[in-house]
């Protein structure tokens, strides 16, 4: 199958998944106890009788269920995810303002975890029972067993009262003055701790995985051949072996995107990072259902895009897939 | 002769006793034994706290934010209201572990049923069920659980169901893979040839043979479910009248710069529990997998 056809098929599949999320949202609204109009308005949004009547007509709540579903999908197709009565703002705008910080946090954590994780895995694989391998084992344990919000709090205690070199709250300094580049610097400075906290979980996984797959690959015939030909050790490790050892990392990194967003919810809450997770937390407290369901939709969209990109980068990294059919 | 007897006999012929071998391998595995010991100690602590200890974790017993070691009455100190941290740990473990276990059971029931059906029947049923599984994997699990709990009002039961509903896809995939592999084996063909019905083949012949990897995955799921429960109650999404380790961290987080101990101890409790569970899971994995033994 050609690349274009393949991409088109994947895009179509992504759209179907997204519609699936909307259908799920719709049924969640109707399965929730109480009046759907009240649910759409948000239980603590202070919706008046007039607002509820407007919602009933606008969403056709007196019509059959399937017609209602069609009306709901039509709303979303026009970019209307509803209105948050608590924030008194359209949900789409509320979320759009917070997608950026979440994407920044998630990508920073992912990139850090992959690069450092793979580097550690590669060096550990060259001495499978060395100190770095032991360190990776310890790190894996912490990454797996320590709740991420707790790790974050421990880092805040460390960096706020014992060794104050990193900011622990928010995305920018309260009294910030300076140019555009200084602003970017300020944001990156604030990003260090949240991104590191989120990365720990995945760093552990990636380093363990790349260590294992590197040990496998270093024992393969073609690596022995390369060594026999007199290729330098650095070139063997970083050119011949790493390229194949990194394939499983791409797969796992793609699968982990949903978990990364789940983790970001907690990390944002701990570090007051102004992203979708914080918004989700606020909407939960206020029973702001339209915002919450909108966030679920956007989060699913992010995962679908990430999966698509993973697929494409996999095709790029492994030429066998490009030439050999699927 | 029933199928169970037939499989038992075939093992007897080869002289293999997989369960006994696994047990021996597990007992030789030091980290796995340590995990079992640690987990037993934690469970004993939690059982004592839940059923025998009579103190009220919400009662204000001492000055607020008393550091640990100040007085034997409050060995781990007090929180921002003056509530005993030790009592919180004793009483908060029950809900944490119970929700973790209940959620893991729900995960297993959904995951094994759907994965088993998909793997056994194959074809369009497999396609359909795997698309459904993929769909659920697109939803970030914690966010989905938050939505479910918020819509259906927070309670311990809602939390357990919500976690189970978001965690099952992985179990389903694993079960499917095992069923796909095992359904082609000779003893399944043998069972079919003596006229065993599909239901019997699936749950009485294939499932017992697919159990080892599923037991390992179930153990690890308990660990993940405990972390989810902790995260949700940290966010204030669990029943606020049920003390739990995550809730203790959540209610004290605003005061961390004044007092480190009210958040540190419950966090250590969660960490040790999940750590112990993962050691047991890894140990079971090694024990059930003869290829890994002796490494």
What does this structure look like?
The complex is a heterodimer of chains A (326) and B (295). With 326 residues, chain A is mostly helical. Chain A has helices at residues 3-31, 36-41, 49-58, 65-77, 91-126, 131-145, 148-162, 180-218, 221-228, 233-245, 247-255, 257-271, 276-285, 289-317, 319-323; strands at 83-84, 89-90. In chain A, β1 (83-84) and β2 form a beta hairpin. The radius of gyration of chain A is 24 Å and the shape is globular. By secondary structure, chain B is mainly alpha-helical. In chain B, α4 packs antiparallel against α5, α7 (156-182) runs antiparallel to α9 and α10 (245-252) packs antiparallel against α11. Chain B is elongated and about 75 Å long. The chains are: A mainly alpha (326), B mainly alpha (295). The interface between A and B is large, with 50 and 40 residues.
Specify Rg of chain B, calculated over alpha carbons: 23 Å
Low-pLDDT residue spans of chain B: 1-15
Count up the helices of chain B: 11
What multimeric state do the chains show?
A: heterodimer
Mean pLDDT of chain A: 80
Q: Characterize the main sheet of chain A.
A: 2 strands, antiparallel
Quick gist of this model?
The complex is a heterodimer of chains A (326) and B (295). Chain A has 326 residues and is mainly α.
Features:
heterodimer; A: 326 residues; mainly alpha; two-stranded antiparallel sheet; 2 strands; 1% strand; globular; B: 295 residues; 11 helices; 74% helix; elongated
Task: Provide the fold topology.
The complex is a heterodimer of chains A (326) and B (295).
Chain A: H1 3-31, H2 36-41, H3 49-58, H4 65-77, E1 83-84, E2 89-90, H5 91-126, H6 131-145, H7 148-162, H8 180-218, H9 221-228, H10 233-245, H11 247-255, H12 257-271, H13 276-285, H14 289-317, H15 319-323
Antiparallel strand pairs in A: 1-2
Helix pairs in contact in A: 1-4, 1-14, 5-6, 5-8, 5-12, 5-14, 6-8, 7-8, 7-12, 8-10, 8-11, 8-12, 9-10, 11-14, 12-13, 13-14
Chain B: H1 3-14, H2 18-28, H3 30-52, H4 85-121, H5 123-138, H6 141-151, H7 156-182, H8 186-193, H9 198-234, H10 245-252, H11 261-288
Helix pairs in contact in B: 2-11, 3-4, 3-11, 4-5, 4-7, 4-9, 4-10, 4-11, 5-7, 6-7, 7-9, 8-9, 9-10, 9-11, 10-11
